[in-house]
Amino acid sequence: xxxxxxxxxxxxxxxxxxxxxxxxxxxxxxxxxxxxxxxxxxxxxxxxxxxxxxxxxxxxxxxxxxxxxxxxxxxxxxxxxxxxxxxxxxxxxxxxxxxxxxxxxxxxxxxxxxxxxxxxxxxxxxxxxxxxxxxxxxxxxxxxxxxxxxxxxxxxxxxxxxxxxxxxxxxxxxxxxxxxxxxxxxxxxxxxxxxxxxxxxxxxxxxxxxxxxxxxxxxxxxxxxxxxxxxxxxxxxxxxxxxxxxxxxxxxxxxxxxxxxxxxxxxxxxxxxxxxxxxxxx
Length: 282
Fold this sequence. Notes:
Thrombin, subunit H; 2 domains; protease; signal; zymogen
């Protein structure tokens, strides 16, 4: 079983983006961590619990023009969505769609075209850092019982807070996208504790927050860009991790850390200084 696990590790080392979720580069230190866990990467998102209707009305499915689920995201107002930069980087906005108001990604409550998106100007500099983007839709999002904006945080999280992860990420490594939105309750750990668990990982910068829960619980591919929230307040966006839920921390973009960038980018609706750059598609 361990050889099976390591084989998957080596296969993933050559490609660190799997169906939406960024997979960490498998360094010798990380491989050692995996080998000690004995994991075969057969994980479930909080034991496969389906989300209830209206649980996360801010949740969106970012889809291709062909209607395939790519990533998650969170509604922040009637025009804007927050997601991970690696979910949109390099795409033409014309080929992206935003689905709202549903727990079934194939059955949209509503669907919106993407007008433009803005990626943090220091995205991936250094690797895995500043992985955050803002999407603007062409028409105002219609709010109702099942579609509502999330609140941005004013204060950082307290250590050991219980947070809610939602997404259509695979329930097993390399598995299919589940039809129904999944929910997971995770435990936030502060930055020093996370770095201790990660062995001082350079890819986990101060703009990240971490969760660490039991082995077999956590984010997987397809969850990228999706919301991590507490009491309706958005605290994180799925960024990267080891595949999948092996008892190693998952890393999220810290919404509190980037809140000024978010507000500035939304207010200007363009990149007038080096805080973001647009898609570069006309």
